[in-house]
Inverse folding.
């Protein structure tokens, strides 16, 4: 028997602490061969002893685990958000999790704000560069607080970073299928090269060069503003999108709206062959935390994405099917038209998964 997959679990703050237990129950209900180790990183630990990430934290995660499942980080008691930055951005940067994977799939027409959109119309994937761009916090402020203040925020694009995310996107496109079973065939690169000519030029040239290795994939390019318009007007246009860190951050929230909102969206932070991290797209949502009203579906679908990444495909599919059943039976939370609380919705989904697992 293969040894169980080792999962590090970091629920974090706010609704992360409510939705992650539901995601773990969903995984347990599949009977997948996994074992969990929970870490207490987050605002409570930081306020208790000043620790954001223990000294050997990231190396332990990389060495001892097959995957990491995170909730969310951010707490009004830590206004600087220092712990969230050190944990989340630290994990992405120091573990070099360069590919942010965001599947955008409408599970049921009732969840989409667009008139008459069907699940087949919203089935694309955004692959966001996760370690460079403006998120490296390079730059500075000069003459702060004066009328002459200058603020510079550098947009870092390295040949290595751009090439590897583009290659990852081509490989993803070549090896993944749509929900209806057909092959993914089109890769669109999104930038703003008409205004940001230096970085855009590097992305354009690299995209063209790597495309030559993937003759079976059709390529396309759009500026980010045009892409936003098209995503609302005709989401069926998209198959796989690759883009930089900031544009990816923005367009994935727009994309989340097409699939039912932040409560339904899952993501992975991936470095192929390394320990990768999975998290729901939503944040810690302080206004709704502790009220048992947060939608657990995003975290549960994130668990499915993680199992899929670990090669536990039938288990992953059972979780997705159970979430679809929950939408159809209105066994979800109020944000998506249901009536249940976080725990009750999670329990319902886990029960359905168990029934699939035993049949
Ligand atoms: P971050 O910057 O960490 O991404 P944010 O403040 O931009 O966080 P969230 O914390 O994700 O955004 O939440 C914004 C709002 O979206 C919440 O206050 C809540 O109303 C809604 N929301 C987010 N996640 C969920 C969820 N799982 N269930 C229900 N509503 C949610």
């Amino acid at each position: 028997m293969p040894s169980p997959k080792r999962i590090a679990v970091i629920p974090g703050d706010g609704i992360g602490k409510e939705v992650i237990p539901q995601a773990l129950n969903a995984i347990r209900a599949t009977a997948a061969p996994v074992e969990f180790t929970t870490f207490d990183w987050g605002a409570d630990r930081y306020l208790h002893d000043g620790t954001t990430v223990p000294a050997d934290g990231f190396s332990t995660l990389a060495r001892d685990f097959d995957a990491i499942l995170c909730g969310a980080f951010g707490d009004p008691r830590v206004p600087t958000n220092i712990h969230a930055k050190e944990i989340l951005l630290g994990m992405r940067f120091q573990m070099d999790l360069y590919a942010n994977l965001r599947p955008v799939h409408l599970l049921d027409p009732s969840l989409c704000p667009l008139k008459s959109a069907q699940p087949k119309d919203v089935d694309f994937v955004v692959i966001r560069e996760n370690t460079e761009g403006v998120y490296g916090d390079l730059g500075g402020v000069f003459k702060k607080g004066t009328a002459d203040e200058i603020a510079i925020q550098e947009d870092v694009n390295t040949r290595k970073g751009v090439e590897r995310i583009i290659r990852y996107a081509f490989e993803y496109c070549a090896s993944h299928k749509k929900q209806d079973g057909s092959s993914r065939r089109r890769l669109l690169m999104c930038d703003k090269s008409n205004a940001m000519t230096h970085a855009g030029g590097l992305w354009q040239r690299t995209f063209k060069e790597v495309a030559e290795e993937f003759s079976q994939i059709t390529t396309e390019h759009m500026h980010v503003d045009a892409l936003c318009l098209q995503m609302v007007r005709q989401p069926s246009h998209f198959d796989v999108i690759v883009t930089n860190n900031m544009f990816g951050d923005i367009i994935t929230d727009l994309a989340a709206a097409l699939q039912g909102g932040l409560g339904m969206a899952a993501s992975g932070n991936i470095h192929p062959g390394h320990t990768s991290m999975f998290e729901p797209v939503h944040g810690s949502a302080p206004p709704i935390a502790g009220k048992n009203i947060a939608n657990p579906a995003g975290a549960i679908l994130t668990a499915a994405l993680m199992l899929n990444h670990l090669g536990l495909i039938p288990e992953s599919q059972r979780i997705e099917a159970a979430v679809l059943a929950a939408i159809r039976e209105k066994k979800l939370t109020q944000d998506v038209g249901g009536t249940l609380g976080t725990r009750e919705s999670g329990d319902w989904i886990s029960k359905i998964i168990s029934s699939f697992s035993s049949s």
In short: The pocket of adenosine-5'-triphosphate is lined by residues 15, 74, 262-263, 282-285, 287-288, 294-295, 298, 335 (CB under 6 Å). The chain has a mean pLDDT of 96. The longest strand covers residues 5-12.
